[in-house]
Amino acid sequence: MPAFTFEKISPPARRAPTAAVTKKPRGIISQMIDRFAERRAKRALRGKRASRRDEKPAE
Question: Smallest Cα–Cα separation from 27: which of 17, 19, 35, 15?
Fold first, then answer.
């Protein structure tokens, strides 16, 4: 028989609905970084595919 037990404590009930948080538009710099990252990822995928085609089959 255990010496103690754990009880599940429920969170306090919400009294009023929370106001919807409006999203700020992203800045120009963050958009540019996203574009660069996306292009770099695509280029990396193309590089992997090309290197697979260039590999000689194992004999």
Answer: 35
